[in-house]
């Protein structure tokens, strides 16, 4: 399905009013290969909902659940809020980078994984924690990370 | 509304329920520092500089956005509060390019002033100023993101007051930047160059593209005949930069200064404002008589023109084809004036002093060259004029008042009021009424059209015709009227639109601060200028009449069309 179709379907489904902006963005993201909201879609949304493009882009870049950059099938979001930070989230970053062979903000060549930061995901009791798509993984260390990646590669959860 | 009693620094204050701590403190002259707060804008609560201690509460409260509660005990001046404010200030300063000495807002910066008031002596933290590129992509507005403190005032004015939405906050937290949306440069988006963002910016993150050096250069060039025009709004605001009270009229001092620094002629845009009335009034009557597109919309305000070109190009046929007074002035100076005084137009340099940043972009529009040369060569804002005065070290208050030169220095009160919202319409009605009825208009003051209200209307009986007019200022209000036209609900003959709130006196090139309170004073002054003229109707301007006699022949005639009228561009997409 082309992007224009995805956008107009999302607007039809969620409603063509300003208050539906976030829902529309999420819908487009979930239906776009690369798990993101392509910037071209923002222009269509801006015109349809009569919201300035700058505002649509502002919203799309504000929420960490939305991305305007291509992400992996599994978008790994590493929490960098204070509790995770003091529990060593910067080490967790290094391990993910090493295991996946990419840097923060990048996508693996096979399109399976991407790495990004997120603000607090409410899993402070499990710090350091990450969110991979809709699932939270906590109390991370090197072995756990290797295990998670291997399991996701195999197609398990 | 029920009242609550609170104690601020042990002083009892009784205020309405819902009053914020900041407002309550003001009532007893307790001055809490603010930064993101702006008197004409919504409460933001972003900067946290206005924190205070509330008894029984562990954390500080931001006074701008905390309503008082009955019995609340507030402390605004404890060591803890002062230290915390200093700390917050340092967090802001580490991300601010604090090179004050070379900053455009040196001496007129809210951050600089606050830093001094809070007695900041060091910045304890590592500075993290990114060296981001400065956006100089357009003729009007420059953005320096390294100075930006992310207070959000520019965003509010751009979205909520002007309804343009050229810029917004992109990303969040640490990465937050104020950007033209998806793009890097202002020139990539539908920005109208109104400069309202400049007027609310507390620091030097947004400012006009400065053209002062170009003016100094031409003034030293002996081969050039350098002519200057001053817009109506400049004379009622410039004084603010030199300690005069808002609303002071400094026309004669400005003329004296411009002569002192070597301009060959100092003329008045009020003169071509009068001329605009003749052309625009004739155009209106022509449209009414011949079934032309109505309502007709005014065309003096270049920010407004860019707005309709970007957002409602399908309605461009409603816009008067008259050039703005600035552009009419340029076209006539390089033709009529050049011929009359035997000066080669290629040697003439036309400088404008305008309350406006969009005028800089208007002057360089490709089609603005009907004289065979660029009509207007250099445009300065009121603020830039102030800077030139400072640079020259001439003391404004010491200057003896001098009159404008002839011939283009002769104007009427009708031209003078172009600088305030409703002024163009009032000036037009003074003339159109007399043209239509052949009778003298006795009550020439259309008070219903005056003042900073967003939307004003009036109906004037002229013989058998009832002429219905409306006046809007601020582009969000322009949008309302454009939607009405689109839906066929705008039952008017003539609509005046000024881009900036309050009209040109609130333009993006005016002295800062430019709050509503100050704008009201400037408007009062504009009408005082009107009263000071012996002649207050444009069609009675003797020089305008001579110009028609000697050169233009008739309104809307061949020469007028060639020199004084223009066309517009569809800028959508």
Automatic annotation (TrEMBL), chain A:
GO terms (molecular function) for this protein are: 2 iron, 2 sulfur cluster binding; metal ion binding; oxidoreductase activity
Per the entry, the cofactor note is: Binds 1 [2Fe-2S] cluster.
Full protein name: NADH-quinone oxidoreductase subunit E
- Keywords attached to this entry: 2Fe-2S, Iron, Iron-sulfur, Metal-binding
SUPFAM superfamilies hit by this protein: Thioredoxin-like
Which segments does the entry list as coiled coil?
none
Q: Which Gene3D superfamilies match?
A: Glutaredoxin, NADH-quinone oxidoreductase subunit E
Q: Which family would the database say this protein is a member of?
A: Belongs to the complex I 24 kDa subunit family.
Automatic annotation (TrEMBL), chain B:
Give the signal peptide, or none. none
One Pfam annotation reads: Fe_hyd_lg_C
- Which CDD domains is this protein grouped with? fer2 (cd00207)
Q: Which cofactor does it need?
A: [2Fe-2S] cluster; [4Fe-4S] cluster
GO CC, sorted alphabetically, is: membrane
One of its GO biological process terms is: ATP synthesis coupled electron transport
UniProt entry keywords in alphabetical sequence:
2Fe-2S, 4Fe-4S, Iron, Iron-sulfur, Membrane, Metal-binding, NAD, Repeat, Translocase
Q: Specify the 4Fe-4S His(Cys)3-ligated-type domain's residue ranges.
A: 80-119
Localization: Membrane
Q: Which GO terms describe its molecular function?
A: 2 iron, 2 sulfur cluster binding; 4 iron, 4 sulfur cluster binding; ferredoxin hydrogenase activity; iron ion binding; NADH dehydrogenase (ubiquinone) activity
Q: Give the 4Fe-4S ferredoxin-type domain ranges.
A: 139-169, 182-211
Limits of the 2Fe-2S ferredoxin-type domain:
2-80
What SUPFAM superfamilies is this protein classified in?
Answer: 2Fe-2S ferredoxin-like (SSF54292), 4Fe-4S ferredoxins (SSF54862), Fe-only hydrogenase (SSF53920)
The entry's family comment says: Belongs to the complex I 75 kDa subunit family.
PANTHER family recorded for this chain?
NITRATE, FORMATE, IRON DEHYDROGENASE
Please state what the protein is called: NAD(P)-dependent iron-only hydrogenase catalytic subunit
Which species does the entry assign this protein to? Answer: Caloranaerobacter azorensis DSM 13643
